Amino acid sequence: MRIPTESIRDVLNRRLSRRRVLASGGGLAALSLASDAVWAQAPASPLGFEPVAGTADDRVDIPQGYGVDVVLRWGDPLFSDAPALEPERVSDGVLFEAGSAQVQARQFGYNCDGIGLFPIDDDRMLMCVNHEFPNPSLLFPGWSEALPTRSWGELMRRNPEAVAYMQASVGISVVELVHDGAWKYVIDSPFNRRITANTPIEMVGPAGRHPLLGGPDDDSPVTALGTLCNCAAGTTPWGTYLTAEENVDIFFGNFDAASLTPDLERAYARLPPRPRDSRFRWEYADPRFDVEANPHESLRFGWIVEIDPFAPDRAVKKRTALGRLKHEGATAVLARDGRAVVYTGDDQEFEYLYKFVTAERFDPERPELNRDLLDNGTLYVARFLDDGGGEWLPLVFNGHAALTPETGFESQGDVVLRCREAADRIGATPLDRPEDVAVSPVTGAVYLACTQGVNRGRTDDVPGGRQIDRGTDAANPRAPNRWGHILEIAENGADAAAETFRWEVFMLCGDPASGNLRATPPAADQAPADTDVTYFGGSTDADALSAFANPDNLSFDSAGNLWIVTDGTQPRDNNNGCFVCPTLGDHRGDVRQFMSGPIGAEICGCEITADGRTLFLTVQHPGEGGSAVNPISNWPDGGTATPRPSLVAIEPTDPDRKLGE
Ligand code: FEO
Ligand code: CA
Ligand code: CA
After folding, report:
1. Which of 138, 239, 364, 605 is the least crowded, having the fewest Cβ atoms under 10 Å away?
2. Structural domains of the chain, ranges and CATH numbers in brackets
3. Is the pLDDT score of 546 beyond 80?
4. 150: CA distance to ligand 3 center in Å?
5. What residues are paired with 115 via a beta bridge?
6. Is pTM, for the whole model, over 0.85?
7. Over residues 587-607, mean pLDDT
């Protein structure tokens, strides 16, 4: 395999001049990258808004000239037969009451994270929203206050309705939105729908009938109940929603590897559930979440799930071809030949970046052929070389000497089920929590958020006995990496299906005013960088940059500005927020803060409408760290209200302006 050797700048510059020629000629192939179509409107201009200052206050700040609307809050009814949540009664224990779960299943769910936009026309869309996990200390009085940790399970055993409530609060909301002066949601839209931890979902693809999933004996596909820990997301060219199951291990308790069959023990080795109590204690009221009682159940989670928001009756499917891991998100683009490519990070320290390339091409004329495109194709994992080159290594049964019956793999089903182990064996590069991926519509370059690597540089034994080098390398140059970084990847030939790439560090996050702002990223042969060394895409004016850390979700506007939302402790003790910077031209890396969130929240979502006018963000777990009785945030309702995870829309007040201008 030939890995290109020129610099990533040369690759991107050449690509831009070629695109300029293409755009002026106007002859663009229908299936080329979206970037070709938008190049003409892609000036490398500075951002036009004054950045907001970071804050630790309990409010949402946005720049002057913009307005923000709370579109949907946890507990807002999606159907007129459901009552609205009464937030003032949460601290009284209303969610313990019989029937509360049934009501929640007809309302907007909890802890909104990734989103997908599905336009119907200029002023109407379907929106899919992930609800990642419950936060019982904010839902149930008693969880945090009076009880020792070991008693939380007993609380749930005595209150099975609370477990049912949490199961109804997670999953997905599909909601119709309409723009009528501002974005509002439509109660009783025929498209409105909740998918919860109990919705039947088909397991399909190479592990869809894997015996370790514990399906029926007759070899028919497995039906999973529900989807869990839905973190970030993506939308496909054929108009479906991909939702990523991330930290599914925390939902299952009573895991004891020694009590399992050798096959199950091996399947769990690299993604084990909790040995005693699960985080949410569901197993005390529902044995499905008790691994000892139901040893196959947890393997039905940790997948990419596909939903057609326009077809509420069509089966939801878990696409096992994309591997079982802690999927952060699923970013779908088209390769040059029309095959679909889905990038997905595995969000844990020292895990990997993957991409899946479909075997068949997307056909816009024949939608029925696109429906199961994600069941056949090649799953790859990334190896980052210290010289700036990189390879996509195929995770194919019998395609590599390490993925054969001799090494314990009997099928592609085994490879995807034990995806992390397979990636270990073929030499993938362990990264500092690889999270969301965004692809520039201007250059086709791929950006990967590596949120954090606090254990980078450690030399003691790796938990679980895994043999890896935790030292720095060029792609993970700081030890420890408290603030996170962003990698920039140029696929060979600007083709998302390429098997090689060039890459470089785009950003080493942190406080640029710390005195350690560099004009170039650290070279591979230099000593590991300290965690406070920063690099902002080449920007050198520290005072003009906004401090930020722990990049999580990424998105692009059509001008090639990268939008970044954060999840973690921020420099200067600020709350999490949303940040934006150009990736091209003289202002490359000039990060400005666009939004600051309330206390305790991470900021998620981060999707922009096609007209460039609205930024949708989700505010997840406001008030985390407080309790139902003693909230530390009252956002968005104010007063003494319980905090509510919510979807917000931010728009310029000037109807002729676009975001960021
Ligand atoms: Fe659910 Fe990796 O954030
Ligand atoms: Ca995330
Ligand atoms: Ca997160």
Report:
1. 364
2. 8-74+109-133+170-246+302-652 (2.120.10.30)
3. yes
4. 26
5. 129
6. yes
7. 97
